[in-house]
Amino acid sequence: MQTASKLDTELPLTSSVTLKNRFFKAAMSEQLGDSDHNPTPELFKLYETWAKGGAGICVTGNLMVDRNALGEPKNVVLDHQSDLSKFREWVRHGTENNTQLWAQLNHPGKQIPSFISSEPVAPSAIALEGELEKGFKKPRAMTEQEINDVIKAFARTAELAKEVGFQGVQIHSAHGYLVNQFLSPRHNQRDDQWGGSVENRQRFVIEVFKAIRNAVGDTFPIGIKLNSADFMKDGLSEEESMGVVKALSEAGIDLIEVSGGTYESPAMMGVDLKESTKKREAYFLEYAIKARQHTNKVLVVTGGFRSAAAMNEALQENACDMIGLGRPMAMQPDLPQKAMDNPDFKIEVAIKSTGFEILDKIAMLDLTWYEAQLSLMGKGKQPNSSLSGWNVLLQTLGNMGSYAFRKRRA
Ligand SMILES: Cc1cc2nc3c(=O)[nH]c(=O)nc-3n(C[C@H](O)[C@H](O)[C@H](O)COP(=O)(O)O)c2cc1C
User: Fold this and answer.
1) What is the chain's percent helix, strand, coil content, to nearest 5?
2) pTM
3) Residues 55 and 149 reside in one and the same domain
4) What is the pLDDT of residues 137-183, one digit of tens each?
5) 409 CB near ligand 1 (under 6 Å)
6) Does the beta carbon of 61 lie inside 6 Å of ligand 1?
7) Is 354 found in the same domain as 276?
8) Are residues 393 and 333 in the same domain?
């Protein structure tokens, strides 16, 4: 007998906020900011399309908290120089259909491509590896003052996000960005209060959280995207990640989205999957089940979900409360509605290659191909699953000139 779907059931998030269903559109960097890093009409259209497609929460692609520290050239930045009217317009479109629109807040730390910054900062002066050293400069270790300034920048951006109407914020603490760098024993080898012991490495994320809470008040939802582990030698371990879940839950976080890996070891994109994981589709379910013992907050698992059956099963077994979706939402913006209407719903996502692995890699096709889909939707068009790799490569080159062929990160 088939159990009733939980996908379209409501979910209480806080004492005053109830989500309309279990679909969570995960952050995907859109590369649709203007030259002043404000949101554009393409972003309005894209988020309106997602809102109409039925997701309970849509999280923006990473918004940068410091305009001197961009992860990518066309990032949106939210600070006192921003044109807030454009952000309000973005929120107006993205909250149609009773959708919650949350802002993902990020600082890249050392994950700033060298064509953007010649002197990135990080917890310690340790370069990226795994071929990334070619596109990213070795960083300088942050001073105590710089650490405090970045904490303040997160809080300031969160306060502005609330002011312009976003209904929640999410700290990006995954995928090797600055907050993740502080947590990692490999990337954080400081010998002051910000490094060394687990407690010291956790201090940065906890201080960022507390500063945001202080800025937005007790009832405004705050979430985090957290790595279940970094999946690399001396990276954040599962046990240490669980410690962060526990500490942030005690501190009052409202939602935890589970991901994993970094661009040195991209587990979040589903590499080297075990057979048992392939069957359940989602990459980080086992971790989420364990995390339940340390938190009673809303848990989201992102990475790998492709069928309504696997999504519903994860909810039924109480592994998570919401289904995080990235690439499938770039191909099918009304996926939530379709999956709620049809228990047999399934989506395949496969990018078109140029046929040359090296070109695919140089052009970062595993990201830029999806970015091209977001751009199509921003123009009011449908995503195009047969879009050729060459087309994306040339388009990226045309749009972004020489930037296209340098390393970029999402
Ligand atoms: C084009 C693109 C951009 C992304 N940008 C971000 C980002 O800004 N912040 C983030 O936390 N994750 C980002 N991700 C990762 C996704 O949120 C998600 O974790 C990943 O795609 C795995 O989920 P999926 O299997 O549903 O795609 C990005 C992924 C893609 C494909």
Assistant:
1) 40, 15, 45
2) 0.96
3) yes
4) 999 999 999 999 999 999 999 999 999 999 999 999 999 999 999 99
5) no
6) yes
7) no
8) no
